[in-house]
Write a structure and sequence with these properties.
Structural class: mainly alpha
Distance between the termini: 68 Å
Shape: extended
Number of helices: 6
Strand content: under 5%
Number of strands: 2
Helix content: 40-55%
Radius of gyration: 22 Å
Number of domains: 2
Strand order of the largest sheet: 1-2
Order of helices and strands: HEHHHHEH
């Protein structure tokens, strides 16, 4: 199952917190979730209207288990972006019909179940709990200039 959430950062974090609390209370609506991407400052929505469809995406190709995490995520996101572009080009009058026939007309834009399973198995992509703990943790980093000793006396050459 894929959820694409397009909203403000506050609304997305509130949704993830609600998902985490449902899981902690023992009544999860989603058994396992990973956060693949959270983007900021997007000029316009990709999917203009809320909708859902239950689609069984057939496995078009055998996925190699050594497929890198980066290629798997990039492939999945590329397919979803291609789906958004396809739906955007569809006239609104035909949108319902186009959504019903996605698996027949554009199967190459639907991520396969094997690809989604592969992404869920990678520990690189954060679970909801891990994402929220990282989101709320303090940012601590060391600047390169703090690691140089002794401090450089003249950084720029001076021509007298």
């Amino acid at each position: 199952m894929i959820h694409i959430l397009e909203s403000s950062e506050d609304a997305l974090v509130a949704y993830l917190k609600e998902l985490r609390s449902m899981t902690q209370q023992g009544e999860p609506k989603v058994l396992e979730a990973r956060v693949l991407l959270m983007s900021h400052d997007i000029p316009e929505r990709l999917f203009e209207a809320w909708s859902f469809r239950s689609i069984v995406a057939s496995s078009r190709e055998q996925l190699d288990s050594s497929l890198s995490q980066k290629k798997a995520a990039t492939g999945c996101l590329s397919q979803l972006l291609g789906l958004a572009v396809h739906l955007r080009k569809t006239p609104k009058a035909n949108l319902k019909n186009a959504m019903d026939l996605l698996s027949e007309r554009v199967p190459e834009l639907l991520p396969s179940e094997d690809l989604l399973t592969l992404l869920l198995q990678h520990e690189t992509y954060l679970s909801v709990e891990d994402f929220l703990s990282l989101y709320y943790s303090e940012l601590s980093f060391v600047e390169d200039s703090e690691l140089v000793w002794p401090l450089p006396s003249h950084v720029f050459p001076y021509n007298n």
